[in-house]
């Protein structure tokens, strides 16, 4: 004898149960093994006949996850706002009095950071009203650490303008980063190479890197580049046009 569940579609089966038991919610745990097997077969048949439903479900799930991530990021930025936007060791460029702030966590050996660099420069120049903060976040090995130590030491020894020149040189440098290479870069920039090389190993430089790593940990940042724009975190490289659109959107909020 054919079980009733085998004679109806999934939708009809659920409707039938709703009609015959209106006073109580459908409880799958009360089904017999035969009923469960029949229901599973109906579901399988439905999905095979309508595979687009799976993609629709995946799309909805991804959207919900993205929304949850975005809200979580907003909360993380709010809690850590002082360390993100007002620390006493990060370089501030663009327009220091700008109406919005863009923060970048960067690593000099990161190919996507290098790709983003000229586009960020274009964004700042074309807009003229963005405060820009750079966070040294070396995560790609010893050369990354050496580069960041050098850049931070330059800022501490020679100031913000020298730091920017060193940053631009490092982000575009294509050779191996060694102490000798850093000494040459310092010489090319007319900096006191000996003083900077000595400062690189100082506790002051170590503290900056440690503070940035601790902040990144609290913000759940594990890759570069990571940008913070307003209360949003933008994880990964973004083309110039997308960043311009997000800047415009941030100003409207």
Radius of gyration from CA coordinates? 28 Å
The span between the termini is 65 Å
Main CATH class of the largest domain? Alpha Beta
Order of helices and strands: HHHHEEHEHHHHHEEH
Which structural category fits the helices and strands? alpha+beta
Could you describe the 3D structure shown?
It is built from eleven helices and five strands. With 253 residues, it is an alpha+beta fold. The protein folds into two domains: 4-55, no CATH class; 81-252, Glutaredoxin (3-Layer(aba) Sandwich). β4 and β5 (232-235) form a beta hairpin. The termini are far apart. Residues 1-23 have low confidence and may be disordered.
Task: Describe the structure using short key phrases.
elongated; 2 domains; five-stranded mixed β-sheet; single chain; Glutaredoxin; 5 strands; disordered N terminus; alpha+beta; 11 helices; 253 residues
Secondary-structure blueprint:
Blueprint lengths: L9 H11 L12 H17 L2 H28 L1 H5 L5 E4 L5 E7 L4 H17 L2 E7 L5 H17 L1 H13 L6 H10 L4 H7 L3 H16 L7 E4 L2 E4 L4 H13 L1
Parallel strand pairs: 2-3
Antiparallel strand pairs: 1-3, 2-4, 4-5
Helix pairs in contact: 6-7, 6-9, 6-10, 8-9
Would you kindly provide a brief summary of this structure?
This protein has 253 residues and is of the alpha+beta class.
